[in-house]
Amino acid sequence: MRFIAPAAFCLVAACTTGSSLPEASIGIAPVLTSEEARDEYTFARPQEARVTHLALDLDLDFTRQSVGGTARLNIAAAPGVQQIILDSSGLQIANITAPDGAALAFEIGDTVEGKGEPVTVKIGDARRITIRYTAAPQADALQWLAPEQTAGGEHPYVFSQGQAILNRSWIPTQDSPGIRQTWEARITAPAPLDVVMSGIRQGEPEDVGQGRRAFSFAMDKPVAPYLIALAAGHIDFRALGPRTGVWSEPETLERAAAELVDTEAMIDAAEALYGPYRWGRYDMIVLPPSFPYGGMENPTLTFLTPTFIAGDRSLTGLVAHELAHSWSGNLVTYASWRDGWLNEGVTSYIESRISEVVFGARRAAQERALAFAGVEGAVEERGADAPETALRTPAALDPFATDSSITYDKGALFLHTVESIVGRERFDAWLRSWFDRHAFQPATSAMFLADMRQNLIGDDAALEQRLQLDAWVYGTGIPDNVARPDPAAFAQVDAASRAYAAGRTLDAQAWAGWSTAERMRFMQNLPDALSDAELATLDRTLGLSGTGNSEVKFLWLQTALENRYDPAVPQAEAFLAGVGRNKFVEPLFDALVKQGDWGMPIARRIYAATRPLYHSYTRGRVDLLLGAES
Ligand code: BES
Ligand code: ZN
Fold this sequence. Notes:
single chain; alpha+beta; 20 helices; binds zinc ion
């Protein structure tokens, strides 16, 4: 039987008027019944009953920092099934009703650490239910910002982050990547705040009285529920191209728009390689600095950290990355968190291909070389036979605990390797066809390899042997057929690193001509131990303290703190107070913690001030580093 995603064929309006499913089928992807696709982080039992469509009607309350209202779920259930299990994390449910208004019994189970609690609803024969609820008071997915935490300083702000399993703290549904759902939403907020979501806006904002406005959205493609996202604040929009634009607070809009001028070219590049962009618009929102990630691929509306703005477009690989998820991840999604590389590794590969078209072969080669060094470093650190160096992660690994050097960079390296062996033209055609064949469906590592064998390798046994597919996906370390990056990519900067190591010579002029990737390479290859005098010279000669490039600044601060360099502490403090991106925050606190008697008191002092500024994810990570009492 071929899986037909039922919701994919009905428009939102049709979906909401009831199930159009054939009686006998509940339309779940066959893959979801396989053991390798099992998601250990959901309570849902999709084989019995699954959500196909979600309609939210919610009010944002900035005074109480809470969100509540109703969620209507369309359900596909096997014949005779009388209950459905949803995921929750602290949701406060007032009642659940059938279409005729009858109250349905439900039960909220015990909380399981890291997973939340199951909500079992006795649906009887009902296949559409309405849940009246309020999100958890401290919903993990949502960060509410006071006016002082925004650039404008006048209006409050809220944004959500669903991945990995945070959306269950504000949306009562089955929160598992394989359980795709179409959705629609009506959200009210006080004027003059604007609301945006990861779906297409429907009509103009509507005045609903008491100074509030309602915004409507729809996503008519079935998506993984972690991709439902919302932001609301004092934000403006600037068009970039026919289908692209950027939202941000007015204060940052100009700089953001200037940094994003290559976006249409990126979409063109991706489409030429992997087929049409299927989501309609591609807008972006630049969030306040506490956003915990670099970017998040929310469909139709990528969420971005403001730290990608360097002034010279040198960090917009991030945009290429989130855009690439429009194929890898959003169009074809992993069914379980164990196949994270299928999302992030394939995406990092596509990012590299987009980068090559838009920024040129040299920049792409340098970015690949940086990533390669990261994979080598991770494998060396963990050991070539460490289970966590396999692409398909071994056991129940925390879905947040992706090791980016493996999931992202080893994943991309695998595809670069296959490409180099079968040839670019043939590999591109296959990857494009993979997306077409599995569009809007969940997938697993095994499906990916099976498809590759069927449609790329065929009965070419010699090719099969050369590719070492299983070694790449299920094995540890780096297989020996790896396609190494171009050694010329960093020839110049590596010579400079050797000169510095040998005689502490620095060439400010050379540095000034280097790309961001080259500068990062140089910073990463500095000697481990540096004296205060050497650090002072580095800083002065290369202008590290004054750089507006967040990646370079981060590497400078990390080096300085690892060497107990007191003069950098105020800068580190300012940086940590101004940025909530976990990729920067966690390693800097980690560097301090590792400097025990010198660093620990500094870490505690800084964190006491910055903790309230961070999103729950970043806060959780740093709490772990600093111990419970912080
Ligand atoms: N989907 C991820 C962000 C994410 C990963 C959120 C895991 C929650 C759990 C996003 O696409 C991403 O990879 N962002 C990177 C971008 C970078 C690799 C260019 C980031 O945030 O740094
Ligand atoms: Zn990603």
